[in-house]
Specification:
By secondary structure, the chain is α/β, with parallel strands linked by helices. The protein is 37% helix and 20% strand. A hairpin with a 2-residue loop joins strand 10 and strand 11. Catalyzes the formation of acetyl phosphate from acetate and ATP. Can also catalyze the reverse reaction.
Length: 397
């Protein structure tokens, strides 16, 4: 089975085509600046060089059509006809409480995704556009929605209800939803394979650490708690997001700085985090370089980030009543041995010991815990696209 995975943004479209016989990536690419000047498709067939194809790409339907035409192109294509695409899997950011797993897309599902637009106004609309575009270009092909929020729907009420009047939840669906669920699910499955154990027998803390970052407590394959909340703003300090703050800061800053709700939302989501603290960058590589050169604010930003991750790991070890493994994934988690070591240096009380030589790894699945460590420390590269392809294959078959 060949599965096309699509991830639509407001002016972009990422794609990967998988051959699910052996889970090989046949091709992948990005359509950027949809509806804008300078639009182009950047296509990479297999492991060959990328090909840039400038074009007038007015909307997502044109983008999908261009992707299909490129995949079947005589020179740079990887399939002989569009009929070889047997299913399409879509990343959908928010499924609310409606979806606790991936689903085949129909009119009822589309209506439910639309009802979640208030919860994800920047993400669900382009996700819907991508689904509708594929429906027009590939009308006979079944499509699957894979939700960022779905994996976290096993949380108990004590984890997802906020300390607001209960009517806020009943009437406005205000609760913790969690995000990065596809990534947390993927590394949970991979951890079980790496450890040679059944998922049902494992207590895991998964740390998805990138420009956006979240931590999840997982018991027997079910999420018990996670750091992101109603939106991806809650939780850890991130690249440009502030993470957990005293909510009274919101009206205080609005009054002091003369900001309206949109201004403050932008301030907390795009100007805060390690970028706001350091004044240098939202890229942790830049912060590490600046810190080594003596930049105190860059060093402070890195310390604050590690401290926040430590707090969540510690609290989730309590939630789980113990932990078998702590997993690091995503850009920073996979590629920064220094960050991993800094985060884990406070967990001797759990019986966790790391092997510094084994920790010198980037982007490779590795158990870097020391011999005799009671808790395993793992690096597991995430692959959300493959997780989407797997769910799509299973549902369509």
């Amino acid at each position: 089975m060949k599965v096309l995975v699509v991830n639509c943004g407001s002016s972009s479209l990422k794609y990967q085509l998988f051959d699910m016989k052996n889970e090989d990536v046949l091709a992948k690419g990005l359509v950027e600046r949809i509806g804008l000047e300078g639009a182009q498709l950047v296509h990479q067939p297999g492991k060959e060089d990328k090909v840039k194809l400038p074009a007038d790409i007015s909307d997502h339907k044109v983008a999908i059509k261009m992707v299909i035409d490129t995949l079947v192109d005589n020179k740079i294509g990887v399939i002989s006809s569009m009929e070889e695409i047997e299913a399409v899997g879509h990343r959908v950011v928010h499924g609310g409480e409606e979806f606790s797993e991936s689903v085949l897309i129909n009119d009822k599902v589309m209506d439910a995704i639309s009802k979640c637009i208030d919860l994800a106004p920047l993400h669900n609309p382009p996700n819907i556009m991508g689904i509708e575009a594929c429906s027009e270009v590939l009308p006979a092909v079944e499509q699957v929605a894979v939700f960022d929020t779905a994996f976290h729907q096993t949380m108990p009420e004590k984890s997802f209800i906020y300390g607001l009047p209960y009517e806020a939840y009943e009437e406005h669906a205000i609760r913790r939803y969690g995000f990065h669920g596809t990534s947390h699910k993927f590394v949970t499955q991979q951890a079980a394979e790496l450890l040679g154990k059944e998922i049902k027998d494992l207590k895991l803390i998964t740390c998805h650490l990138g420009n956006g970052a979240s931590v999840a407590a997982i018991d027997g394959g079910k999420v018990m708690d996670t750091s992101m909340g109603l939106t991806p703003l809650e939780g850890l300090v991130m690249g440009t997001r502030c993470g957990d703050i005293d909510p009274a800061i919101v009206p205080f800053l609005m009054k002091k700085m003369g900001l309206d709700a949109n201004d403050l939302n932008n301030y907390m989501n795009k100007k805060s985090g390690v970028m706001g603290i350091s004044g240098v960058s939202s890229d942790f590589r830049d912060l590490e370089e600046a810190s080594e050169k003596g930049n105190k604010r860059a060093a402070l930003a890195l310390d604050i980030f590690a401290h926040r991750v430590q707090k969540y790991i510690g609290s989730y070890a309590a939630v789980l009543n113990g932990v078998d493994a702590i997993i690091f994934t995503a850009g920073l988690g996979e590629n920064s041995p220094e960050t991993r070591e800094q985060i884990l240096n406070n967990f001797n009380y759990l019986g966790l010991k790391i092997d510094k030589d084994k920790n010198k790894v980037r982007g490779k699945a590795t158990d870097f815990s020391a011999e005799g460590s009671k808790v395993k420390a793992l690096v597991i590269p995430t692959n959300e696209e493959l997780m989407i392809a797997r769910d799509t294959k299973n549902l369509v078959k």
